[in-house]
Amino acid sequence: MRPLSLSAFTVTSSLGRGLEATLAALEGGRTGLKPCAFETVALETYVGEVPGVDEEPLPAELRDFECRNNRLALLGLRQDGFDEAVRALARRLGRQRIGVWLGTSTSGILETELAYRRRDPTTGTLPADFRYYGAHNTFSVAAFVQRALGLEGPAAVISSACSSSAKVFACAQRAIDAGLVDAAVVGGVDSLCLTTLYGFHSLQLVARTPCRPFDAGRDGLSIGEAAAFALLERPAGSLPADAVLLLGTGESSDAWHMSAPHPEGRGAGDAMRQALAAARVAPQDIDYLNFHGTGTPSNDAAEARAVAMVLGGATPGSSTKGATGHALGAAGALEAVVCALALRHGLMPGGVNTRVIDPQLPVSYLRESRRAPLEKVMSNSFGFGGSNCTLVFGSAG
Amino acid sequence: MSPTLTAWVESVGLLGPGLPDWPSAAQVLAARVPYEARPTVIPPLECLPPAERRRTGKVVRLALNAGLEAVRRAGAETQALPAVFSSSGGDGENCHEICQVLAGADRQISPTRFHNSVHNAASGYWGIATGATAAANALCACDASFGAGLLEALTQIRSEGTAVLLIAYDADYPAPMRSVRPIPDAFAVALLLTPAVRERSLARLAAKLCTAPADALSDPQLESLRMQVPAARCLPLLRRLARAEPGGVVIDYLRGQRLQLEVIPCH
To answer: For residues B180 and A203, what is the distance between their CA atoms, to the nearest angstrom?
Structure first.
């Protein structure tokens, strides 16, 4: 595929607001995971909550979209001058020529969960302030981001659980390639809610302690939330050496099970091979891999097998979910931005919380951050329903 | 300038109120038989293993039945066929059940309900049912979901040069969600789209963005279906296919944007 440049990008997660805070936390091996004190949730687990999301209500003209997920989206858009970069590009290209593709798994479902508690005790009707279009509907986050940025082009939400906001890079790439748009805002926004906290708990996939991807004693994931965005454009004639490029995307389906990965990582391997082929990059040229690495025993085992099969066992890699928690529908974009930071700053972030690397997993897992010039990096994102997506990024220099 | 994206429609699958499959729907849309509104009847899924079959809800059965009809009519292999699933509301019944439990004292939701709550549930079961391991996308664009799914399929065809199966589907919510999103009944459409003309191709399709108003249907009941079910926004296109008449048709997309489709029948 023809590479695209990430001419602007930003991330907000439990590690902090914006790139600088995120980079400092990754370099310092810090985690944003804390004991869960979200809403009225009574579960013994850790979560990666973004502090202060509810302290910033939406501006009056966007009030129809009021919900925690859209507040987090706006908080994210305002970091690192991302919103200004998009508006400047829209002035140049036209607001119809920039598309919006965002990943989310639950959008504003939290408001629905809370509204159900306030149903009329006799009739069962929802409270009058319930917002179906602005909060509940899965598309609400893309409609909101379009409105907040003043964009009027094509838009969609991709909602395939934990691969959602990796797949948006592929959708946007195809739309730019086809000339449907000239540029695209891609990203992911997912916020804490009861459905995912109690849902993963029901599947016994949630760790009681901060998640430990690739650890011999790993026992589940920790849920997080994040808003991460990138502005994708065709690369300008001359790019600065620290410019980050999307080089390849790969997508596949396990066709195996709704909530468990194929044990041999069949679909994961397919996605990785496709991404390498699209990027025209040889497996040995991947300098760093950001694992999906949720910290559940079966996910990490399946992914390690796929990685060993496709890249061999020597590529250094880590999961940053021990730092951020698993941001679900926002994980792909969050980790794409981690990859962009890795390329730009020559930083391979170590996987925090992991103490004893599982000797059964045939990969080179980094527990400590390492500095090295990086040219090509890969990010894996795999979701329920056997939905797999791999992205390959490279530096222009 | 919006480019024109092209594909050939090889087959159609359809399931909706009074529209049990594509041949019967085509008769109605071509005005050869009158439309009779009847509740949508969704057949069971024989293609899933019994354990998986028990776990699927109405919406998954709806989407898969439409997809299976389209691939059956085309005699298409599913294993390497990329699929685009698009739905405004996903599984509203399942969502209601989860929210109901979470609003109560005991918040223990069922693991099956949880994994069925993902918007890509139909896509996941499609893979299990048909062995499809190619890329599958699950989109939502609220009322624009059919148009967004069609654009996604067309850009995939343009970029990857493969056939793509598009399945757009929506079903009615139970109360109390029904009062805020009054979708009257279940409706799904599947289009098998190919990058080049084939022996069985029904029509060539050329799509671009426009701002003209969307075409309406003359039958008031069908028009009401089109307006009330996001997936049924495809009906003006299907009418054109059913009548095998060349010409343009405009369908709804996002706020302020529509899709202009030029349809040239192959026969």
So the answer is: 31
Instruction: Flag whether residue B254 sits within 8 Å of chain A, measured between CB atoms.
Output: yes
Inform me whether the pLDDT recorded for B213 exceeds 70. yes
Question: Does residue B36 lie in a domain region?
Answer: yes
Q: Do B139 and A157 touch (CB under 8 A)?
A: yes
Q: How many domains does chain B have?
A: 1
Residue B186's domain comprises 10-198
Query: Is A382 an interface residue toward B (CB < 8 Å)?
Result: no
The strands making up A34-35's β-sheet, listed across from edge to edge, are: A34-35, A46-48, A223-224
In chain A, domain spans: 4-395
**Per residue in B55-97, pLDDT tens?**
999 999 999 999 999 999 999 999 999 999 999 999 999 999 9
- ipTM of the modeled complex: 0.98
Q: What is the CATH number of the domain that holds B168?
A: 3.40.47.10
Determine the Cα–Cα distance for residues A42 and A97; give it in Å rounded to an integer: 46
Domain A4-395 belongs to what topology? Peroxisomal Thiolase; Chain A, domain 1 (3.40.47)
For the question of residue A136 being annotated catalytic, the response is no
Examine the residue annotation and report whether A162 is marked as an active-site residue of this protein. Answer: yes
Asked, as a colleague might, if the bond just before B176 is cis with ω within 30 of 0, I would say yes
> Is B148 in Cβ contact with A126 (below 8 Å)?
no
**pLDDT digit string (tens) for B27-43?**
999 999 999 999 999 99
pLDDT at B248: 97
Q: Collapse the DSSP code of A102 into the 3-class scheme (helix H, G, I; strand E, B; otherwise coil) and give the result.
A: strand
